[in-house]
Write the structure tokens for this entry.
Amino acid sequence: MRGCSRILCVVWLVVARGSLVGCDAGPAVEYAVAVAKVENGNVAGLTASEILALNQTWASVVAARNSITGEDPVFAFTNQQAGALVSFFQVNEVRGHENGRAEAFANKLRTDPGSLLGLPELATAIAGTALAFDFSSVSTQDLLDIFRPLGEFASAPWY
């Protein structure tokens, strides 16, 4: 249950932050739900809105610490690109630690990324960006680069 305390902290922080500054807590809730899904291995259960929430939250974290770390800004996904990621995770059935599908995906990602389904569609959605890749010769690093804008926490299962 290590994830429960982390999730509760995230929910508390983002909801408190939203109410302190008078913001809509909707994106904060989407972020918390997304974190819970990732932590439970249900990556295929993410929605495009939740992908965007992960992406935007990570971009905010990196921007806040940029003056100290000098990190590059985080790539910002469009709605179409977030939808392509959702489709990619769904077609590869990345859900659940209990049935081994998340682990099977991680193994394919590390050992044979070209065997993953939905690569042409993902490549099309990402084309023309800094994350563009050739689906016929995709590498593990190409895909990790696409997952990285979701944040360290969201991309950790694939390392």
In short: Confidence is low (pLDDT under 50) at residues 1-22. Residues 2-150 form one domain.
